[in-house]
Amino acid sequence: MKNKFVIRKKELKDCEAWIDINISSWNDNLKGIVSDRVLKLISSNKDEKIKHAIETFKEDDNHYVLEEENRVVGILKIKNSNRYGLEDCGEIQMLYLLSTEMKKGYGKALVETAFQILSRKGFKKIVIGCLDGNSANTFYKHLGGRVIRQEDFHLFGEVYKENIYLYEIK
Ligand SMILES: CC(C)(COP(=O)(O)OP(=O)(O)OC[C@H]1O[C@@H](n2cnc3c(N)ncnc32)[C@H](O)[C@@H]1OP(=O)(O)O)[C@@H](O)C(=O)NCCC(=O)NCCS
């Protein structure tokens, strides 16, 4: 059963949870898909990353969190896409949940929120990039996304493939 949750803008107090969820999501979901070296680099210097995030924090309308019973369990970042030929699209740049909180409808709720906000900003098309091999690919297909191409995804000097999903908003 779905607990009570709220999706709201990221605040200064969320910087630590944001970094935590980002790092744990990579380790829980992308082991064997990206190299151990990449996972080690993403997980390194966590305290400095949190400090930097706090020092440079500025509220905006691109970063959101999903909070369940006063605990942040999911993060979302949206933006205007800067992918070649897709500059007229909105983009979901980050969507991560704690592994313990998956399959409760939160991913879909965050995607729907992203679509609403981007649609209000005037975007009629939304893109999402998902690393090839990530199980989230089937989630994006399930929500009606269509793969329009693959792109190279550069991570610390290594090159991976990313599937680009397109959604047309009615
Ligand atoms: C991908 C992710 C955001 C999905 O969120 P979630 O909360 O687990 O998914 P939901 O519970 O909202 O599921 C919504 C629907 O998608 C389906 N679904 C969820 N995960 C799925 C998957 N991996 N494959 C196929 N369908 C999936 C659900 O069954 C549900 O279907 P329904 O609406 O018909 O009942 C989440 O699993 C996650 O954070 N994964 C790790 C991070 C990640 O890889 N993020 C994407 C980076 S590109």
Care to count the β-strands? 7
Instruction: Write the H/E string, N to C.
Output: EHHHEEEHEHEE
| Average predicted confidence as pLDDT | 97
At the third CATH level, what is the topology name?
Aminopeptidase
Identify every distinct bound molecule in the structure, by name, code or SMILES: coenzyme A
Number of helices: 5
CATH superfamily: Gcn5-related N-acetyltransferase (GNAT)
Radius of gyration: 16 Å
Total of domains? 1
> Helical amount among residues, as a percent range?
25-40%
Strand order of the largest sheet: 1-2-3-4-5-7-6
What portion of residues belong to β-strands?
Answer: 25-35%
What does this structure look like?
This protein is α+β, with helices and mostly antiparallel strands. The chain has a single domain, classed as Aminopeptidase. Helices cover 32% and strands 34% of the residues. The protein has helices at residues 15-29, 36-43, 46-55, 106-120, 136-142; strands at residues 5-9, 63-68, 71-80, 90-97, 125-131, 146-155, 158-168. Helix 1 crosses helix 3 (46-55). The radius of gyration is 16 Å and the shape is globular. The model has no long low-confidence stretch (mean pLDDT 97). Residues 25, 29, 95-97, 102-108, 130, 134-136, 138-139, 142 line the site of coenzyme A.
Structural key phrases:
Aminopeptidase, globular, 7-stranded mixed beta sheet, single chain, binds coenzyme A, 5 helices, 170 residues, alpha+beta
Give the structure's gist in a few sentences.
Helices cover 32% and strands 34% of the residues. It has 170 residues and is of the alpha+beta class. Coenzyme A binds next to helix 1, strand 4, helix 4 and helix 5.
